[in-house]
Amino acid sequence: MTNITKEMLIGAWTLQDYYIEDKQGIREYPFGENCQGIIMYTPDGYMSAQLMQASREKYSVDNMHKGTHDEYAEAASGYHAYSGRFEFDEAKQELRHYMDVSLFPNYVGQSQIRTARLEDDLLFVSNPKFGNQMIWKKAPNNS
């Protein structure tokens, strides 16, 4: 396990695993065991997280503003996204995500703490409040 610095977080990371684990160690996979996602941390202190169920139904029309209410509900139930500022406390190895925008309206204006640890090229991010565990792998340089 490596102590993380803020600079080590900078860049894009792809989701390897996402689950919620209860106190008995039972795991639930909210978006299935093969969900997809990207989280990005920028040098100027912003972040964006996007997670989704791998196989979501397409809308009946090719216009994101013209879906039916059922299509909107189904698409949103398999997707989670928020963005905002972030801070990293190196002494505690804690991230603080600020939700300036979010698919889940209740998150807007909140901040939440995540614990973080780095093992090889994997970043483990947990939300102790909800038991969420996300495992991210550094994305290859795209330039």
Number of helices: 2
Based on DSSP secondary structure assignment, what is the total number of beta strands? Answer: 10
Lateral arrangement of strands in the main beta sheet: 1-3-4-5-6-8-9-10
| Oligomer classification | single chain
Structural class: mainly beta
The geometry reads as globular
State the low-pLDDT regions, or none.
none
Q: What's the helix-strand series?
A: HEEEEHEEEEEE
Main sheet properties: 8 strands, antiparallel, barrel
Question: In a nutshell, what does this entry contain?
Answer:
The chain has 143 residues and is mainly beta. It has helices spanning 6-9, 69-77; strands at 11-21, 27-28, 36-41, 46-52, 79-89, 94-98, 101-102, 111-119, 122-127, 132-138. An eight-stranded antiparallel beta barrel has the order 1-3-4-5-6-8-9-10.
Description of the molecule:
This protein is mainly β. The protein starts with 5 loop residues before the first helix and ends in a 5-residue tail after the last strand. It has an eight-stranded antiparallel beta barrel. A hairpin with a 4-residue loop joins strand 5 and strand 6 (94-98). It has helices at 6-9, 69-77, and strands spanning 11-21, 27-28, 36-41, 46-52, 79-89, 94-98, 101-102, 111-119, 122-127, 132-138. 17% of the residues are buried. It is globular, with a radius of gyration of 16 Å.
